[in-house]
Amino acid sequence: MAKLLVADGLRKAFGQTPALDGASISVGAGEIVAVMGPSGSGKSTLLHCLAGITQPDAGKVRYEGRKLTEMTDRERSALRRGKFGFVFQFGQLVPELTCLENVALPLRMDRVRRREAERRATEWLERLEVTDVAGKRPGEVSGGQGQRVAVARALVANPRVIFADEPTGALDSLNGERVMRLLTQSARESHAAVVLVTHEARVASYSDREVVVRDGRVRDLTGASRG
Amino acid sequence: MSIGQTFLGLLESSPRHGYDLKRAYDERFGRTRPLPYGQVYATLSRLLKSGLVEVDSVEPGEGPERKRYAITEAGVTDVDRWLSHAEKPEPYLQSVLYTKVVLALLTDRPAADLLDTQTAEHLRLMRELTRRKDGGDLAEQLICDHALFHLEADLRWLELTAARLDELAREVRSHG
């Protein structure tokens, strides 16, 4: 599998506290990788570095061979908008916009015409089984519906990588499963890779493989099993 | 659980008489179900026959002779294989896993690797079940969910044990 996103020897400290201490990981095109680990192990920091949201103190991140760590802020923002999609635990939808407008937002920012953006956003709301909330604002929908709207928004601009940080963290089991099933199914259909940060094994089981972050380093468990 | 392999692990940490072996086993792993003597000697004679242990010394006494048993090279290889091999994930596996962790610590093997190996095997099975669930009807989904929740509980135990490994190592070694 061609490597789409590669991080090598990432180090990052917040004050005196090291979050990453030589973390390396690679993600193939269309691959779904779960990043697991206990709280405070550095898994969210790793996701932020991979997505170009946080600059590491040392180490490199490459997307399709281009070094994120050497890009200007403007170049990184353009890459995030054009190639990456994001799903967080909560608080990511713009409260003043309807769910449909929220999903259409990344397209509008890329200057797609309103009618076309809303047509594509409607298609994604259908795929995520939330067409009934299109005209509602995020505050008027349930947590599970809101997360499915967020997944639709992450996928609408046809990104190559989806970064999902505890996407089901605020949901009950049934809604969490539905979000994960739809997220991974849609990503597979769109050939988008997913970097999924979670501390829940059942959420991670939707991935193709799992890695564990421990003490700021990444351990790939795939080779560990000899069972 | 394999009593034979547990004996081998205990013998690797030091040669013992049959009685001491039973006592060490009961103390560490058989608190609620001590081993009957019959089973201790039957297991030892099986291990002798297959060349995994040998009689290290014989002390004459008033009653029957007291034999001291030691592990052989083949026995060490057998323990090695058992400890490094993931168990088939299934509910109520903890007692086997606990035994493996303690024996790894007792014999200076990397217990963290053992936990990682088992974690990977559990995660692999969970992925398989999640895929099966995706294509299944409701009954299939519920059956898979039941297994998934149990495996998740095992994984939490593995994670917690990994976090307490240093503490456990100190405790295990202080018991001798």
From TrEMBL, chain A:
Residues 5-226 form the ABC transporter domain. The keyword Chaperone does not apply. Keywords: ATP-binding, Nucleotide-binding, Transport. Pfam families: ABC_tran (PF00005). One of its GO terms (molecular function) is ATP binding. It comes from the Bacteria. SUPFAM superfamilies: P-loop containing nucleoside triphosphate hydrolases. PANTHER family: ABC TRANSPORTER RELATED (PTHR24220:SF685), IMPORT ATP-BINDING PROTEIN (PTHR24220). This is ABC transporter ATP-binding protein. It comes from Phytohabitans aurantiacus.
Automatic annotation (TrEMBL), chain B:
Residues 8-77 form the Transcription regulator PadR N-terminal domain. It comes from the Bacteria. Transmembrane segments: none annotated. It holds the Pfam family PadR. InterPro entries: Tscrpt_reg_PadR_N, WH-like_DNA-bd_sf, WH_DNA-bd_sf. PANTHER family: NEGATIVE TRANSCRIPTION REGULATOR PADR, TRANSCRIPTIONAL REGULATOR YQJI. This is PadR family transcriptional regulator. It comes from Phytohabitans aurantiacus.
